[in-house]
Specification:
By secondary structure, the protein is α+β, with helices and mostly antiparallel strands. The chain is built from five helices and 17 strands. The protein is globular and about 75 Å long.
């Protein structure tokens, strides 16, 4: 069987557009306070701000007067104010005031684009595509975010590469070799691959080197000769446009992707660790369990950042190699990667067809 059947050529794959008819986690809720926040997603400049009820609003980041960025301005009541001449715009994108307008002048009938936006699981989710499709979809669920039995850590990733390189990295668990000096799993063996209309899932068997109810085992992650792993399942799932995984029963990892351009991707890694192995935890007072959860927030952030540094170096080298040789296709033996590449190409074609 030809594994390359239906796999897009490198030049098509590495320039594939993001399908914007999905919800994207464009910022953490804690990043947006009193000042406007500029974000980018697939060549779109967008400004986020909170109205007087602390609700998030999202607009095109461009004042229609002199085309400067609204994110340079400030928030006043329910409006964002352009810093240049003081033009005001509400959350729907309507111009509500021009401070120097005379009595004989009317407000111009201008409206800048607004975007569906919501807050969930500690993130600001934006729907940058056709707003009519926003209600038919929901952001990726992260049930562990609020669950008292889970400790959560978050780390941001910025990589100068097309998002396809990141997805392939996440779906190919053989790259644990890269993290051999900083490694939570090892010796992965692909057991099964399953493909749906908008997702690809791969189940590996792997050795896990850390158990949540044995905190001292964390030292094995950093000292290879001490490692005594146990076999467990490692399931990874690319559910377009995001990714998540299960390592045994205790660990979940999410990657919330934000494609910025053909050579730039931003993402948030969300790591969750179950405390369910500690018997009797559910009998403790709610206030104490919440205190433990909040106190341990970001406990694994340093570990995530270490993995990110190693991965980003490789992905950026891949991007540079592609730019130097755009027609060259690397050799591949993991069948999961071809399925992922097909899905990315299909989603780009779907979006371009309906745009």
């Amino acid at each position: 069987m030809n594994q390359l059947a239906g796999v897009p050529r490198p030049a098509l794959l590495r320039s594939a557009a993001a399908n914007l008819n999905h919800w994207y986690a464009v910022a953490r809720s804690s990043e947006l306070r009193d000042k406007p926040l500029a974000i980018q997603i697939w060549y779109r400049d967008i400004v986020l701000f909170r109205n007087q009820n602390h609700q998030v609003q999202a607009l095109e980041n461009c004042c229609p007067h002199r085309l400067v960025k609204l994110s340079s301005g400030y928030v006043q009541g329910n409006d964002i104010v352009c810093i240049y001449h003081g033009w005001k715009f509400n959350g729907a994108g309507d111009c509500t005031d021009i401070p120097y307008l005379t009595d004989r002048q009317k407000l111009p009938p201008c409206r800048i684009r607004s975007y569906p936006v919501q807050e969930r699981h500690g993130f600001i989710w934006l729907f940058p595509g056709d707003p009519a499709q926003a209600h038919a979809q929901q952001p990726l669920e992260i049930p562990e975010w609020d669950h008292l039995n889970y400790v959560v850590s978050v780390a941001r990733m910025d990589v100068q590469a097309h998002f396809s390189f990141l997805v392939e990295n996440l779906m190919d668990m053989y790259h644990g070799h890269l993290h051999r000096h900083f490694q939570p799993w090892g010796n992965a063996i692909l057991q099964k691959k399953t493909v749906g209309s908008d997702w690809v899932e791969a189940e590996y068997q792997a050795e896990c080197y850390f158990q949540i109810n044995r905190p001292w085992s964390v030292i094995q992650l950093f000292i290879p000769w001490l490692r005594r792993g146990f076999l467990t399942s490692l399931i990874v799932r690319y559910e377009y446009p995001h990714w998540h995984s299960w390592l045994g029963h205790d660990f979940r990892l999410y990657c919330l992707l934000v494609p910025v351009s053909v050579t730039q991707t931003r993402a948030y890694l969300v790591h969750t660790a179950s405390l369910g192995a500690f018997q009797g935890l559910h009998r403790l007072p709610i206030w104490f369990r919440r205190w433990v959860k909040n106190r341990c927030f970001n406990a694994a952030q340093g570990f995530l950042q270490g993995l990110i540094r190693e991965d980003v170096l490789m992905m950026e080298q891949e991007q540079q190699a592609h730019l130097a040789h755009p027609q060259s296709r690397g050799l591949e033996v993991n069948p999961v990667i071809g399925s992922v590449q097909k899905l990315i190409h299909q989603q780009a074609h779907l979006y371009n067809t309906n745009a």
